[in-house]
Design goal:
The chain has 13 helices and nine strands. With 332 residues, the chain is of the alpha/beta class. It has one domain: Alpha-Beta Barrel (TIM Barrel). It has a nine-stranded parallel sheet. β5, α8 and β6 form a beta-alpha-beta unit. The longest helix is centred in the middle third of the chain and has 16 residues. The two termini are 32 Å apart.
């Protein structure tokens, strides 16, 4: 999520497994509840077709449990952010596995010391990734994640089709084509370090426009179906009337780009339409069978510096709507 500008519709700031190999491994590992939409027929029979994922500030397990109790369902996917110099929280990841939750890891190729919105950081340019400047950190992260022996989602260098991160092609001296090159470099490195099945999520922001930056098209930024398993997207409702308005144009472009499955990898809603928007999420998800799940961000400006107050736990109407939405998803 980004700070600042709200230009419509901006939201703010081993071996490589084949898809078949990933599914076979996933079917054998209990933790992959959230991956069941890509699993075997048996997994489909016992696991929700559309997974419910959750992000809470600082990945506090108590907060995950509190939100789950309010909405009547534990998330089967839990979000976690890492930067190049982050300590990989192995104990927390093991805890997720014990709870039957699949980690949804967002790997941001910059530093814990990087300031929000600080895009001019040559040390974290796409060229620095391509040239191997961060390979030591990346190998450490890959090795530690792989040591757990459980499948996970990996969302690398997200929201690349914008201008608020140093890995966006529109800023930081980056050049056309470098994002794809950087992605493939990191993918190859991770594949050489771990044999654990990784579900690679390529996750642009909802379509953005800018009068100041030349934004590449999604097609120009797509690394290719051989190194991506899932198409994701970031999309927040700032009082939108419906999820169709929030996601529709971007989902349409993603579906034209590739036949890969989709996830709504970072979403939230704020404003007077929050409860109504949440209720309408169920028919939107059910209308498109390619959407396999969503990760709701229970965040606010005061907790994470988010671009809006997307919390449902602080609003009885939103909590009730979310609970109703999940119940409807499971019933349909």
């Amino acid at each position: 999520m980004i700070p600042g500008a709200h230009l419509e519709p901006s939201d703010g700031p081993g071996r490589r497994f084949s898809r078949r190999g990933f599914l076979a491994a996933a079917a054998a590992v209990p933790v992959v509840v959230g991956l069941a939409a890509c699993g075997t027929t048996d997994a489909r029979a016992t696991t929700p077709k559309v997974f419910f994922g959750l992000d809470v500030p600082f990945d506090q397990v108590g907060e995950v449990d509190r939100v789950a109790a309010l909405v009547g369902e534990q998330p089967s996917v839990v979000s976690l952010f890492l930067k190049l110099d982050s300590d990989v929280p192995l104990a927390r990841l093991e805890q997720m596995g014990s709870a039957g939750q699949t980690p949804f890891v967002t790997l941001e190729p910059w530093s814990l010391a990087s300031a929000r919105g600080q895009v001019d950081q040559p040390q974290y340019s796409l060229a620095s990734i391509i040239n191997g400047d961060h390979d030591t950190d990346l190998r450490t992260i890959a090795s530690k994640l792989g040591s757990l022996g459980q499948p996970f989602y990996l969302r690398f260098a997200h929201e690349m089709n914008a201008w608020w991160y140093p890995w966006c092609e529109a800023v930081n001296g980056n050049r056309p084509g470098q994002y794809v090159h950087a992605w493939r470099h990191v993918h190859q490195l991770f594949s050489s370090e771990t044999g654990v099945p990784i579900r690679w999520v390529w996750s642009p922001n909802r379509l953005v426009t800018s009068s100041h930056y030349k934004i590449p098209t999604l097609a120009e930024l797509f690394p290719g179906g051989d190194v991506v398993h899932v198409l994701g997207m970031t999309g927040y409702s700032h009082d939108d009337p419906s999820p169709l308005v929030t996601f529709g144009p971007t989902v349409d472009q993603l579906k034209h780009l590739s036949s890969l499955p989709l996830v709504l990898s970072e979403i939230g809603a704020e404003g007077g339409s929050q409860a109504s928007w949440i209720r309408q999420l169920q028919p939107f998800l059910r209308h498109d069978p390619r959407i396999q799940g969503f990760v709701y961000f229970e965040t606010s400006p005061s907790t994470t510096g988010a671009t809006g107050d997307y919390q449902i736990a602080t609003s009885p109407r939103a909590t009730s709507a979310f609970k109703e939405m999940l119940r409807s998803l499971r019933a349909s």
